[in-house]
Amino acid sequence: MRAVRQLAPDTEPREVYWLLLTSGFRTYRFLPVFFREFYPRFDAATPLRDAALLNKLARERFGEQYDAASGVVRFVRPQVLAPDLLTLPEGRLPDPHIAFFLDRNPGFVRGDELVCLTRIDDRNLTPAGRRMAGRTPSLERADEWTCVPLR
Fold it and tell me: What percent of the chain has pLDDT above 90?
C-alpha cells in the first residue's frame, strides 16, 4: 500500500489509479477491504468516466486478450491458480463481493482475470487501508501493481 500511495504525492495535484487484475476472489476481496470506491462492484454501476478509463487502459495494456464486454483478460498462456486457491471455503459464498466476482469471472478457474480500477487517494481508503498505508508492502508483490498517473 505504501508503494502504491507514493505514486500519488500530496504536492502534485493529479489523479492516480490502480488497474488491478484479479485472478481469484481473494485478490478481488482486497478492493473492498482497503478501498471505498472501486469498480466493478456488486452494489454500484461503474461510472461512465471510470468505465471508459478502465477499458482504455486494459485495451492498451492487454490488447485483444481483453474482452471489454465481460471486463476480463484471457491470456494466451494464463497462470492458473493453485488447486487449493480455486476452492471456495465453506461459508464464503454469502459474501456479496465474492458472489459478484464468481458471477463476473467464472473463467477464473482457467486463469481468466477480472480487470478492476480504483483511485489511489487517502480519501478513498477504508480504515484498514489507512492502517496498511503506513506499512511497507512486500517487495515480492510490488511488481503486480499497475498504477497509472493521469496528468
Answer: 62
